[in-house]
Amino acid sequence: MEKEERFKQAQTVAVVGIIGNLLLAIMKSIVGVMANSRALIADAVNSASDVAGSLVVYIGVRIAKQPPDEDHPYGHGKAESIAAIVVAVLLVIVGIEILTASFKAFFNPIEPPKLFAVFALIFAILVKEGLYRYTYRVGKQINSDAVMINAHDHRADVFSSFAALIGIGAALIGEKINMNWLVYADPLAGLFVSLFVLKTAWSLGAEAFHNTLDHVLHEEDITHLKELVANVPGVKKVNSFYAREHGYYVIVDLRISVDPLITVEEGHAIGKKVKAQLLKDSNIQDVFVHVNPYSQN
Question: What's 84's DSSP letter?
């Protein structure tokens, strides 16, 4: 896929997420207040944080699009992973806020929510599931940490809205059958929403953080690349091979051994052939080859 097309798709996903989450946050907030549902209000806060998250993804993708420069010779690909970390931090803040508000509700008398809160949540679940499927498909296609964490954020919202739906439903049933204690199923659902948001933030944030620490591909992921290098005419041995993930692309550092009796120019030519072979892989953006004289020792 062309880089320009990749960034265009990533930006489109972010914009769709911003618009969708903004509309859902407004809808949930209004209905949550009118329906007196703490679970729905908590879900509205979660959707509001998703607006900020999608905005961060949009900014991260635009930064990652920039070409290498003097200060960033390896490019700006890690901007997407950093954006993913920022989204994870936002999720933690929101999760704690929902947890605190839901917990406090248990120590105060509350009224049961209204029935129309149920319809608002069903609508939100359908919209969020659609956003998840669309964002996940694009994130996989363009190999973007930021877009993938945004996709899983949408899926987390599906489950959190479902938890809120169960809580509101239980509270409404309790009112009908005179089991007034079931009214607290609404804030209880808010607690489940907060815990799910925190769990999602931890798992996805940890993955994005891992990718920012110059993570190298595992041996099973680079075996075919090493074999490709070893088959280049003039390469006697592949001494070392490191493929570093730099956001959505990979940068390769390797050392090869060549005949010690050939000229420097000939050794350089072999290195250029190695680089050309590796750059045929669409995930590899740059290759740095160090040429050593071959020795059996």
Answer: H
- Give CA–CA dist 25/40, Å, rounded: 10
Token digits for 2? 């062309």
- Rounded to whole angstroms, how far apart are CA atoms 204 and 154? 12
Segment 238-279, tens digit of pLDDT: 999 988 877 667 889 999 999 999 999 999 999 999 999 998
pLDDT of residue 173 exceeding 60, the answer is yes
Q: Per DSSP, what are the bridge partners of residue 254?
A: 241, 289
Joined together, the tokens standing for residue 49 give 């944080």
Chain centroid to Cα 238, Å, comes to 34
Domain 219-293, CATH number (from 3.30.450.30, 3.40.190.10, 3.60.40.10, 3.30.70.1350): 3.30.70.1350
For the chain, the domains span 3-212, 219-293
Gap between the Cα atoms of 107 and 126, Å rounded: 33
Q: Where are the alpha helices (DSSP H) in the chain?
A: 3-35, 38-64, 78-105, 116-142, 145-176, 185-212, 219-230, 264-278
CATH of domain 3-212: 1.20.1510.10
Q: What are the E-state strand segments in the chain?
A: 237-246, 249-258, 284-293
**Do residues 232 and 273 touch, judged by C-beta distance below 8 A?**
yes
- Distance from C-alpha of 12 to C-alpha of 150, rounded to nearest angstrom: 13
